[in-house]
Specification:
Layout lengths: L5 H4 L3 H10 L4 E2 H5 L6 H13 L3 E6 L2 E6 L5 H28 L1
Antiparallel strand pairs: 1-3, 2-3
């Protein structure tokens, strides 16, 4: 069975928040769990999903596990969203033209 894809992994606001924190550099599970009102095992479960989707890498440092961001898989999200950027730019241009004609 395949792990979660990037879109599944970022569907959770908690996992998106974890990625935002990891964008600032590698962190231990303890550091990552601190701002969340959930147990460390729950945060570890979210990190497992992110790891299986290839978005974070795990490293053992002594008795701790440290996680770091690997943003490369997010390129698929950017590419998909970029397709819709043209849609919104075109609609914004049409709205501007309509308002200029009407004004």
């Amino acid at each position: 069975m395949a792990g979660p894809d990037v879109f599944d992994a970022i569907a959770s606001p908690v996992r998106r928040a974890l990625l935002d924190v990891l964008a600032g550099g590698a962190r231990s599970v303890h550091d990552l769990a601190a701002p969340f009102e959930m147990s460390r095992p729950a945060v570890s479960q979210h990190l497992r999903v992110l790891r299986e989707a290839g978005l974070v890498a795990e490293e053992r440092v002594g008795r701790e596990r440290h996680y770091r961001l690997d943003a490369r898989p997010l390129r698929a999200v950017a590419d998909w969203a970029g397709h819709y950027e043209q849609f919104w730019l075109r609609h914004a241009r049409l709205l501007r033209e309509f308002l200029e004609e009407d004004g």
